[in-house]
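Worked example

This section walks through a single chain of length 349. The input is the sequence exactly as stored; nothing has been trimmed or padded.
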Amino acid sequence: MYLFRGRRRASTRRFIAIASAIALFGFLPAPGVAQAAGSSCREMSFPVTLVATSQTMHGTLCVPDGGASTVHVLVPGGTYNSSYWDIGYQPEIRSYRQAMNRAGYATLALDRLGTGASSIPLSVLLTTITEAFTVHDVIQQLKSGERGPRFAKVVLGGHSYGSAIAIVEAATFHDVDGVLITGLAHRVNLGGAIPVFTSMYPAVLDPKFAGAVRDPAYITSLPGSRYSLFHQPGPKVPGAIAFDEATKDTSVHTQALDLFALGVITPYSALIDKPVMIALGQDPVFCGLLATDCSSANGIKRTELPYYSPAADLHTYALSGYGHAINYAPNAPDYFRAVAGWADREVGR
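Given that input, the structure is written out below as tokens.
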């Protein structure tokens, strides 16, 4: 039942997003998949299990011409969906998906359960642990070829809350070959984190989700708040912020409970036994004098190294001049190249 309900709601959400964007901004590129030269994309559905319930996780698989043996499985953060990894505004500089395809890697950008075209389950079932189990289901299907495509190696990448899911999945199942952590660190700047939580409200009250979301525990960001929450101190580029507002999605409060317990407070990440790369911008949520030192790659590494084992061979990257949602940064290509170089060395294509 959730599968069909999720598909109807996802379709409604996307229609409302496009209509709202046109009304507000006059012109906005549609948030659909933008094909990069030399790659092909297709929509995929993966059956997954969430606390003994059957759900469906949607993803967009893009493979460079000539194929690839390594796939980057990409998990978006709270109130984001798969569009974060394939930004439709100036995708030539902001699309992680296109950058990795050009570098010779396949990508699978996922809609977490409750977002995008994936099933929308009861909110109480969604936690970092339960979502990590569903991502594990997807990875197993990619490695076995059960859904058609088969990949020998997997780089599991996350952003923000998606990074916590990646940490729990990799530390629990040991089934990936590399882990990319973005928009998440173990030391939190409370002064920057509190505004994020206070700027959320029930999705049932948001015009974007009118009639599509009925579970009162699903939340989203207040209209017009995306720049202050996720982009500052970066430049305020109207087209980029408009795309973010138009494609924003939902989250639930229960996800935050074990997010902080496993992804931030405790060193559960020390159980990861494969190479790890951490990339952060000048993120108000995690960067600060008593929090994470984001002034340089060495600063990030110094503050994050105690939370990882030697097997992680920790590599770090500091993106200058932007905040939490670093894929939107004008200088994101520098970070994309750093990720591709790390993956080439540590994982291989």
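What to look for: The first helix runs from residue 2 to 25.
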